[in-house]
Amino acid sequence: CGPGPGVSPGAAEQAAAALLYDMKGCYSRLRALVPTLPRHRRVSKVELLQHVIDYIWDLQLALQLGPPRPAAAGDPPEAPCMPAADRILCR
């Protein structure tokens, strides 16, 4: 496959390079926005996207549950609805 009719090979290469640059910027931005990413090691794009999905699920759940109520002194700590190991679907 090559550039479409009327598109020079140089213009197609520039467009592909710009798209790749934009995607790298998007991945970098996601890395900065998602707090659940491990900071001590690099993560693959697939793992990054899985953390993004998990974080969105967590945010959605928090919105559905409403604002947190203040914990009373005798209340046990609230358990997560799903263990972290079960949330990561892609391994």
UniProtKB/TrEMBL annotation:
Residues 7-59 form the BHLH domain. InterPro entries: bHLH_dom, DNA-bd_prot-inh, HLH_DNA-bd_sf. Heterodimer with other HLH proteins. GO terms for molecular function: protein dimerization activity. One of its GO terms (cellular component) is nucleus. It is found in: Nucleus. The keyword Metal-binding does not apply. This is DNA-binding protein inhibitor ID-4. SMART domains: HLH. GO terms for biological process: cell differentiation; circadian regulation of gene expression; negative regulation of transcription by RNA polymerase II. It comes from Corythaixoides concolor. Pfam families: HLH (PF00010). Keywords: Nucleus, Repressor, Transcription, Transcription regulation. It comes from the Eukaryota.
